[in-house]
Amino acid sequence: MSYADVRYYREEFGGVFEGDDAALARLLAAASRQIDGVTLGKARRLAAAKALSKMQSAALQGACCLQAEYADGHGSAAGVKSFKVFDASVTYAESGRTFCEEALVLLRNAGLVERVVC
User: Fold this and answer.
1) How many Å separate Cα 61 from the centre of its chain?
2) What is the pLDDT of residue 80?
3) Whole-angstrom Cα distance, residue 55 to residue 52?
4) Domain coordinates of the chain in residue numbers?
5) Any alpha helices (H) in the chain, and if so which ranges?
6) Is the pLDDT higher at 15 or at 89?
7) Tell me, what DSSP letter sits at residue 65?
8) Conformation bin of residue 89: beta by default, left when phi > 0, alpha when psi is -120 to 50
9) pLDDT tens digits, 57-109
10) CA distance 54 to 22
11) CA distance 68 to 34
């Protein structure tokens, strides 16, 4: 399950991905999995329980689209050096970031990530 679908990305978000819909769907699915990792599954649990507020749902859709575009432009190779579970801290390896900072801000503001240190 993706937090945003192809229709949302193209019509609501106004994304400009030039590939076909199948490639975009794969990017959105990968972005959703990355969001699950950053939120330690909190987003997925709330979505499954239908306990997301409208603001959280909108933040997840936006973050998913932003992350998909970021991965398309920067690659999504694993670059996480360490991950601290209780504070949800992420340290990136020298190879560079693999998660979009703007997407993190959306997730943080929606209360889905307590604190991320990059």
Assistant:
1) 8
2) 46
3) 8
4) 6-109
5) 6-7, 21-38, 42-48, 54-74, 101-109
6) 15
7) H
8) beta
9) 999 999 999 999 999 988 654 444 444 455 555 554 444 567 899 999 999 99
10) 27
11) 10
